[in-house]
Amino acid sequence: MANKIKLGHVHLSGCTGCLVSIADNYLGLMKILDDYADLVYSLTLADVRHIPEMDVALVEGSVCIQDHESVEEIKETRKKAKIVVALGSCSSYGNITRFSRGGQHNQPQHESFLPIGNLIDVDVYIPGCPPSPELIRNVAVMAYLLLEGDENQKELAGK
Ligand code: SF4
To answer: In which band, very low, low, confident or very high, does the pLDDT at 62 lie, cut at 50, 70 and 90?
Structure first.
C-alpha cells in the first residue's frame, strides 16, 4: 500500500448535516479510511483534541467571530493542513441556516457567522447542504493522488 494521507475533520458552527454526509458514505468512507487516508483529527469521529499536522482538513460549519476558540481553531487548522477544504455551504458561504425562513435564530447575531474564507486561505470549496458523500470521497482521493504523487498514482492504476 502506498502512502496514506492524513485527514482531519474540523467541526465549527453548523447543523452537523455535513458530518452525517461523511458518516453516510457507507463503504465509500471505509474505502477512504482503509485505502487512502488515516483520520488523524476529529472531535466527533475520533475524539482527538489537539490539531496535528494534516494533509487535508475538511472544515464543516462557519466561524463565529464572537467565539475566540473557533477563530483560533480555524487559524491553527490553516497552519497545520496542507490543503484546507471548505466542506458544505456553511463553511463556503457562511451559516446557511440564517437564510432560511425556518432557520435557527442564532445567538449571537447571524452576522457573526462567517465563511472560513473570510479568515483564512481556502484551497478547495465543496458547496452543498450537505455535499454528497461521493463528492467528499472524490476530493479525498484527489488529494491522495496530488499529495503523494507517482507512488500513489501507480498504486491506484494497478487496481
Ligand atoms: Fe448543516 Fe447544510 Fe451547514 Fe452542512 S452546509 S452544516 S448540512 S446547514
So the answer is: very high
Three state DSSP letters for the chain: CCCCEEEEEEECECCCHHHHHHHCCHHHHHHHHHHHEEEEEECCCCCCCCCCCEEEEEEECEEECCCHHHHHHHHHHHHHEEEEEEECHHHHHCCHHHHCCCCCCCCCCHHHEECHHHCCCCCEEECCCCCCHHHHHHHHHHHHHHHHHHHHHHHHHCC
Ligand 1 pocket test target in 11, 13, 16, 18 with most atoms within 8 Å of CB: 18
Predicted structure pTM score: 0.83
Q: What is the pLDDT of residues 76-110, one digit of tens each?
A: 999 999 999 999 999 999 876 655 444 454 455 56
Task: Supply the CATH number for residue 94's domain.
Answer: 3.40.50.700
* Residue with CA closest to ligand 1 atom 6: 14
The parent domain of residue 26 ranges over 5-157
CB of 115 sitting under 6 A from ligand 1 = no
Ligand 1 center–CA 97 separation, angstroms: 8
* Residue 98 Cα to ligand 1 middle (Å): 11
Complex ipTM more than 0.90, yes or no: yes
Domain count, the chain: 1
